[in-house]
Design goal:
Helices cover 81% and strands 0% of the residues. Helix 1 runs parallel beside helix 6 and helix 3 runs antiparallel to helix 7. The protein has seven helices and no strands. It is mostly helical and 188 residues long.
Length: 188
């Protein structure tokens, strides 16, 4: 049990990498889109940050209740399903405040990723929670280094490409999240 990567938690690690990848696309390229294509000012971007934080503060308790009521698989499935369409809409919409709305919606759905933490808490041995959480955090941050570089190269070719990659990540996330099972197993 001293090994860092536990095979038992592979799904948690994969979902963390995908969540980190998807997050970086929005953190980096949605802001690029707002500034570069739609000419948002610094104060408008700051206003979006304030709106996102306020909405997050208000809805996070509701998201926690939804996770408790519906379970991680359903809540995360909704997140990834909606993200596919948010990424797609970013490639198609040519309306400044519509793209700003997509940016806000992305942040709303990003808060659903709290379900990854509750998933780990339900499946992990108590002694494994802290180290597995640390590994998941590290894996998430590998995406934070890799995705902006790849996305930046894609952006220089066509600004829509990082969002198409985000659509693909959403599909893979939706497929993998179906493997979540928090019911106790009988194997020892």
């Amino acid at each position: 049990s001293s090994d860092l990567l536990r095979k038992k938690y592979w799904l948690y690690y994969v979902l963390n990498f995908l969540a980190g990848s998807r997050r970086q696309i929005f953190v980096v390229f949605a802001v690029f889109l707002l500034v570069d294509k739609f000419h948002f000012s610094l104060s408008e971007i700051a206003l979006l940050f304030v709106i996102n934080n306020t909405i997050g503060f208000l809805i996070n308790p509701l998201i926690a209740k939804a996770i408790n009521h519906f379970g991680e698989r359903k809540v995360l499935s909704l997140e990834y399903f909606m993200l596919f369409f948010i990424f797609f809409a970013n490639t198609q919409w040519d309306y400044k405040w519509g793209v700003a709305l997509l940016y806000i919606l992305d942040h709303v759905f990003f808060n659903f990723s709290f379900g990854l933490k509750t998933y780990l808490q339900k499946i992990a041995d108590p002694k494994d929670i802290a180290p597995s959480n640390a590994v998941g955090f590290a894996i998430n941050h590998v995406a934070a280094v890799v995705i902006p570089v790849i996305g930046g190269l894609l952006w220089m070719t066509n600004w829509q490409l990082p969002f198409y990659v985000g659509m693909g990540i959403s599909v893979f996330s939706l497929i993998f999240v179906q493997k979540i099972n928090t019911k106790p197993s009988n194997d020892v």
